[in-house]
Amino acid sequence: MMSSNLLVLAAAAPAGGPPGWVQILPLLAMGVIFWFLVFRPQMRRHKEHQAKIAGLKKGDRVVTAGGLVGKIVRLDDSYADIDLGQGVKVKAVRSTIGDIIPPGDSAPAND
């Protein structure tokens, strides 16, 4: 009686779990999805920003990451002196310059 119950239980048991690579497959799929949706676009934006920073020249109008708008007066390897207005000059780290304002945009409202 006991041995017949064991035979029935042994026959009903599954043959085994899935192979190891099948268990890792969802993690690999999530890694690929993150690569294409998050990391790759971020790296592209970073390269574009580095190219903008490298192409800065005296006289460019820029916007800093803090929202200050001004004209570049002097450039160093890691700093930029920015003229914000009448006698107001600041020294900013080059990497904090957010964008270059193209020439021909509208004049400031108070001019």
From TrEMBL:
It is found in: Cell membrane. It is a single-pass membrane protein. Pfam families: YajC (PF02699). Keywords: Cell membrane, Membrane, Protein transport, Translocation, Transmembrane, Transmembrane helix, Transport. InterPro entries: Preprotein_translocase_YajC (IPR003849). The chain crosses the membrane at residues 20-39. Its main location: membrane. GO terms for biological process: protein transport. The SecYEG-SecDF-YajC-YidC holo-translocon (HTL) protein secretase/insertase is a supercomplex required for protein secretion, insertion of proteins into membranes, and assembly of membrane protein complexes. While the SecYEG complex is essential for assembly of a number of proteins and complexes, the SecDF-YajC-YidC subcomplex facilitates these functions. PANTHER family: SEC TRANSLOCON ACCESSORY COMPLEX SUBUNIT YAJC. This is Sec translocon accessory complex subunit YajC. It comes from Croceicoccus naphthovorans. The lineage of its organism: Bacteria, Pseudomonadati, Pseudomonadota, Alphaproteobacteria, Sphingomonadales.
